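Thread: Modeling a multi-component assembly for a lab meeting

Hi all, long-time lurker, first post. My supervisor asked me to bring a structural picture of a complex we are working on to next week's group meeting, and I have zero experience with this. I have the sequence lines for every component (886 residues in total). Could someone generate the structure of the whole assembly? Inputs are pasted exactly as I received them:
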Amino acid sequence: MGPESTADREGSPIVEVRNLQTAFFTEKETIRAVDGISFDVVPGRTVGIVGESGSGKTVTARSLMGLVGRPGRVLRGSSIRFRHLETVREYASRFPGRTADLTDPSVEPADLLDRIDATPETFGYDDPRDVPVAEVVAAGYADGLGLADGDDCVFVTEGEPNEPETITDGFVEISRLDGEPQRLIRGGRIAMVFQDPLTSLNPVYTVGNQIVEALRLHRGLRGAEATREAARLLEDVGIPDAGRRVEEYPHQFSGGMRQRAVIAMALACQPEVLICDEPTTALDVTIQAQILELLAEIQERRDLAIVFITHDMGVIANVSDRVNVVYAGEIVETAGVEALFDEPKHPYTRGLLRSIPGRQTGDRLETIEGNVPTPNEPATYCRFAPRCPEAFEACESVHPQAVSVGDGDDHAAACLLYPEELSRTAAVDHHRERTHGGDG
Amino acid sequence: MSQERLSADRPTTTDEVMVEVRELKTYYEGGGLFGGTPVKAVDGVSFDIHRGETLGLVGESGCGKTTLGRTLIQLEDATAGEVRFDGVDVTTLRGDELYEWRRNAQMVFQDPDSSLNDRLTVGEIVREPLDVHERGSPEERRRRVRELLDAVGLRPEHYYRYPHQFSGGQRQRIGIARTLSLEPEFVVLDEPVSALDVSVQAEIINLLEDLQAEFGLTYLFIAHDLSVVRHICDRVAVMYLGHIMEIGPTEELFTDPANPYTHALLSAIPEPDPTNDRERITLHGTPPNPRYPPSGCPFSTRCPARIRPDRYENLDDELWTAINTLREVLRERQRAERSVRERLRARLGKETRFGAIEETREELFGDLELPPEVRTAIDEVIDHAADHDERRALARLAEEFGSVCDGEGTPAEPELHAVGEGGRRSFCHRHADGYREPDRVLDARQ
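Re: Modeling a multi-component assembly
Sure thing. I ran the full set together rather than chain by chain. Output:
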């Protein structure tokens, strides 16, 4: 079964990331910083992305924001679908020229896949007939199919695109945005909090000024009204004496206060999704506790969907509902937070958890030998194999696919040791088969 | 506590005192023409370090832990007090004596990127201290460097490479090799693993433990990551605003903290266990500016177990939070420098950023029910503040709501009370007779 198609239903995703590939083209090599990542972002929930430095966490976040600059770009076949119905309607009415009507495509998905030389697995389905045409088109295969123009970014799958209020299903494809539609989403619908609050605030403007700038751009507020709103926002994120603080410069704020101000700025435009890229890494534990508490409070109040990126397993355990463990650009394990900490399946996840001091009883800390490799070629093998304590011969030649490893579909690991019920050879064959399908 | 650690009896630890620190103060002067108010980075600390042990030094940023570490090995000049290494007060050493002594005490820095010279090869970096101190012939020096590279887990061919060719973990190994080149007895490790990923961090910690056993080193391990400290340290000192709040054996301090600050710090660590729903003590606000520390106990402005005046003991906790925030706001206002323009605007009766105290009052106390005597007191405080007389406003606030913690009694500062069994000491008024112990208060106020 494919993912739920209607937005605004309880528990259904607001952002669907599918097969996201972001590569950087340098003279020396092509670095596949993000190499086929898929996950959902659900309102009111927090999805955690955890991994070591160099694993592609930040590039994932920047791809979601459309902040990947040259020499990097999001590759064809990637799709980031923003399924917020209100936004789809607004976009359909504001940008009719960039809206594609896919309510009744007279194309069979299977034919379509043949024509673009792709397999259903690329889109996360087993059966070609299940693949929604819209998803194929959104993933950059529009050209030559006659279904959408090159710059279309709004896809309507139910309802009449010319009468926006009748639209009941559709999405905005973030990877195809540019110009005005891009600016409206970035900051307005999806906002981001960066690691270092001092570098994300401009030292020559007052904090209030910087919040007012966002308010003016996205909500059209001006003058005293905007200043009052800025003070209210600062108050909302727990900054006392906000009326005075609005007039102060970033250097007059402490580290924790600065991060609060950055969060206030991110919330200024009432976004649906908040991406937090290591928001507490530069802070002390006591201040970190305050910021985590604040984020939880805001999430509850606004039903905000949060993507939380960190390398700290302790923080992930505290904030996430769902966790994706990334390694060298790929998700190696995804699970609900309790399942992940309770029964980690992938050797990398186990290694990460074991190397935390305090979680082990022995006198020596267990380590993962070696470093995260730079993913500079397509994965035809397990990228973790050189460091893996459980690696065997096949790990060098077969690329592991995500397989279900727990009860239900929501715990998956990409490792040749699984599925556990199969013998090792059968398991390897299982992965090999699915990989070869993927090559087309 | 959820995890147990097999307490590692390190045979190298002895009871012989190696470093005695007595009433040490390090102030950074204001720098202006007339000196100005100094920053009290380290404000009177006393403790011992035993030969062969690892003493952890933890605290939030700005608490003075790095300054303390640097003062111990004379990278900063002490303002007052003594640091005695094997009986010699090193704060009085000058010139050649200091130069000779320095071989004995070395430091590993936090950031391996900025503490290695990019233009030197690894071999040159590690050899530099040997060259400076003219140890042996060039041939012997090269041999010594190779031994050191081997000891920290680098290969001989790394001798001719440059730091940028190494990963963060390997660079930290280079830094450690350089530190050990003069065979010091005492090493200050200033957040040696903070910049590293967990798996690399574990490797470096293992290496440090191996080296300690091999060379009989004594460590002062400065960190803000408490789980690392719990793993590697024999004893821990918790610092806050230039003071040591609690010091004692690691396991005892982690499992049964005495000082309210230690309680709060420990409870703020996010446990890598999602099922853990232990009550967290969230501290409000940030540490005070060390240029203007509060009178009395340094932690009194944020303390969750602060002693309250008898007549207000049963006041609502929310109301206390609001009162504490008000005090913070007033202290902030008192310190904030007012520009000429703002003074002019105030003179002309125009609205300034300092004009909004009434709003702040509304924001803090608007939703709360105030008993009449509290209301009267708060009104007076706000009146003073509205006249821009923060000093009187604070005095009024202290008069009404202050206690021994705010320096109302004598002595103003708490004493280091002995707690627990392993010679642990805690810096808190609550350990004195007549008050409830901090943990009981914290439980009651949760």
